[in-house]
Amino acid sequence: GTAVITATAVQTPEYKAAVAAYTVKVSDPSATVTTKTVTYNFGTDTELGFSSWTGSGYSKHVGEYADATVTFASANKQPATNAISDMPVTKGGDVIIVMKDNRTLKSFDLVLKQWTTKAQTVKLNYSLDGGVTYTESTTSSTFALAGELPAGTNAIKFTFSSTSNQVGIESCELTFDVAE
Questions:
Q1: Helix, strand, or coil (residue 18)
Q2: pTM for the whole thing?
Q3: Of 56, 62, 134, 138, whose CB is crowded by the most CB atoms within 10 A?
Q4: Using the 8-state DSSP alphabet, how is residue 23 labeled?
């Protein structure tokens, strides 16, 4: 036989009010969106703890900032006698910035430092899903990369062309919207 199931949903006033409030927040966030600009100075910010990095090998380092998590997939602190010693140095390790809840990136400005005459090309990859998947974008071989980002971007990843050439990661300025 075939059973016929009939269900009736009761929508309380509280439920309807919650749905209405959520719908307004989702469909019209402009009333509660603030644009912020921050600059992360990787050699001096306490969030990354660069001053206390030790060891000569390249390893993963994570900085928990108020608005984002910054991950250096493979970086180190060079001795004071080397070409760059006042900021993280990588040999091709990704730098990943994932925005925290309710934050979407509008633009970025990454500043790198060349190691003597060594060449390095940096590529921007952006994500609309918090860093699960990335789309490749623009590149630069001038040790700086800046630009606008597609609507909804909430993570960016910088990749490098060479795993042989060191490069300093000096700073990154982020402009983003905070929905509250």
A1: helix
A2: 0.82
A3: 134
A4: H
